[in-house]
Amino acid sequence: MTTAGAELDQHYAVAPGDVERYAANGFVKLRGVLSPDLVAHYEPEITAQVIRLNSQHLPLAERDTYSRAFLQVVNLWRHSDVVRDFVFSRRLAGMAAQLLGVPAVRLYHDQALYKEAGGGFTPWHVDQHYWPLSTDRTVTAWVPLQDTPAELGPLTFAAGSHRSGYGQTLEISDESEAQLDAFVAAGGFPIDDSPYALGDVSFHTGWTIHRAPGNRGDIPRRVMTIIYMDAAIEVAQPTNRFQHADWAAFLDSRPAGSVASGPLNPMLWSAD
Asked: Where are the membrane-spanning stretches (predicted)?
């Protein structure tokens, strides 16, 4: 095993205070989770796969708001053994289990989110609108592959918004940006738009309201995300067209009420 691979599998004990902050705020940013050398080791292969698999080739000016926000490529782990090693990290998966308070987690899917230089803002939204899953026991690890100061578009959270129940029927769009922006402002939710240093990782729940500003820098904002779910979570009956798509793409079209344990949902960490 390489030095980088060994680090990916080393246990990381999430401090009790950070677990409490995650539960209270719906997210937590943890500093120095991964060494800069480790991220630098995996970034070229992740970027190469994004370039190879990206299907968005329209100029920015000809795209809609969502398409201007980022290039999105899912399940890179299926295309590269190097990326698979990163996505299957026991270190990150163990942290997800600690934050969720569950004994084991499975992979829902991974996705690279590359915000091009000059790329637009990511509207306020919640992720779990898209997921046909039975509970809220989900968490996304957001892993920047470079330092991410304000000008590159760091992920921005409305702290405590996961408990509001608001916006759960909104798809990401100009409409979600307007409605959720007004809701967040009126509700006085604290905003965390702090920068990320290389090696920092944030984790957020499926119902946390979040967004990202546009990329005002001259390099892409390269981010790899991994979405984890409680290993006991069940498939729910899809309620919108996006959930129907996810049901087929990531959950093997398994019947509602069955455990989400299809071939694309391997166990990534278990306390057993």
From this structure: none
